[in-house]
């Protein structure tokens, strides 16, 4: 796999550009996840350092596994409106979930409901399917209706309910490899 130079987007859709994360993106990405409206389904509100660690961990998946989180920018104005992608992580949730490619999407609260997450994730999944052709898992906090609807549109199906280390109830999902 060849990664594009950081001076150009990795994926482009009708309305969006998906970029490899860069250090200058971190303040805006943290601003998005720190917003209480956006963060309400992301677990306990963390400190700036917690947010930084999460973003760096998810972005670092690129170097280790060849896939990871992307900064989502609007093509019309270049503003970061979220992040999404497929990253590799261990959450301590069991053999049917850990050590797998995990899909995730976070869109700024002011942009929710405009189809940006679906547009971005369809591009990411098409790329991932072509490059890796294997299953993707996801987790969604119970009560997050919009994310459950999006996951279904993207081909994710229920795996099981689980509890995060902090006690938060989540639904684990699985998207089978293409062609299965």
TrEMBL record:
Chain ranges of the N-acetyltransferase domain: 16-177
| Domain of life, source organism | Bacteria
Please give one Pfam family short name. Acetyltransf_3
> What InterPro entries would the database entry show?
Acyl_CoA_acyltransferase (IPR016181), GNAT_dom (IPR000182), N-acetyltransferase (IPR051531)
Residues of the signal peptide = none
SUPFAM superfamilies, A to Z: Acyl-CoA N-acyltransferases (Nat)
What is the recorded name of this protein? GNAT family N-acetyltransferase
Native source organism of the sequence: Aurantiacibacter sediminis
